[in-house]
């Protein structure tokens, strides 16, 4: 029954440890750093009453060295250590929605929006066909309007999430523009 991690995601995990101290017999010093970069160590103090803590804001696919040092004024406890590896980045986007479709434009939105995404790239073009246009969207946004389209046409829309790590993940959806007004 020693220090271990649960609820591991790409950017956080929960640490659990046995009850070594009480509220009034000391506190814990928690130190953690990427195993590959020990110099990036972070330190946190935790009340002696605690037996768990969530660490967040972590890098994905990274192994962390964690040390829990019980600082007791009654007994000496050896530090507890653990190695925890965060998961790969969430796959994004997981859904692409087309709405407000008109003859010459439609609205595209996607989810989820992740901190690890630098920007989104929207590729769209009529089906069948190979003329594709590209729109860049800031990573903080999750929707955009595509304009200057042909009426009564089916478009293939691909949203690509470009991660800070350089990885890319894509998802496509089809969109149809409405029939245009007859001129004359």
TrEMBL record:
Recorded GO CC terms: extracellular region
Top-rank lineage group of the source organism: Eukaryota
Source species: Picathartes gymnocephalus (White-necked rockfowl)
Alphabetical list of Gene3D superfamilies matching this protein: Immunoglobulins
Domain Fibronectin type-III residue range list: 1-90, 92-180
Name this polypeptide is given: VWA1 protein
Location of the protein in the cell: Secreted, Extracellular space
Cited CDD domains: FN3 (cd00063)
Claim: DNA damage is one of the keywords in the record: no
SMART domains: FN3
InterPro entries: ECM_Regulatory_Proteins, FN3_dom, FN3_sf, Ig-like_fold
Keyword field contains Methyltransferase: no
PROSITE patterns named in the record: FN3 (PS50853)
Keywords for this protein: Glycoprotein, Repeat, Secreted, Signal
Chief location: secreted
Pfam families associated with the record: fn3
Stretches that traverse the bilayer: none
């Amino acid at each position: 029954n020693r220090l271990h991690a649960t609820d591991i995601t790409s950017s956080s995990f929960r640490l659990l440890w046995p009850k070594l101290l009480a509220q009034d017999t000391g506190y814990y010093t928690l130190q953690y750093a990427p195993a590959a970069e020990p110099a990036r160590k972070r330190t946190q103090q935790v009340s002696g009453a605690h037996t768990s803590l969530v660490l967040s804001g972590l890098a994905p696919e990274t192994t962390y060295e964690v040390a829990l040092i019980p600082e007791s004024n009654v007994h000496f406890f050896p530090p507890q250590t653990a190695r925890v590896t965060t998961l790969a980045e969430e796959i994004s986007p997981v859904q692409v929605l087309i709405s407000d479709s008109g003859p010459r434009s439609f609205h595209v939105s996607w989810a989820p929006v992740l901190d690890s995404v630098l920007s989104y790239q929207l590729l769209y073009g009529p089906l069948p066909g190979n003329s594709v246009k590209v729109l860049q969207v800031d990573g903080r946004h999750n929707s955009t309007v595509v304009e200057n389209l042909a009426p009564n046409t089916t478009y293939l829309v691909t949203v690509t999430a470009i991660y800070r790590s350089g990885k890319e993940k894509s998802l496509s959806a089809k969109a149809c523009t409405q029939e245009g007004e007859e001129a004359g």
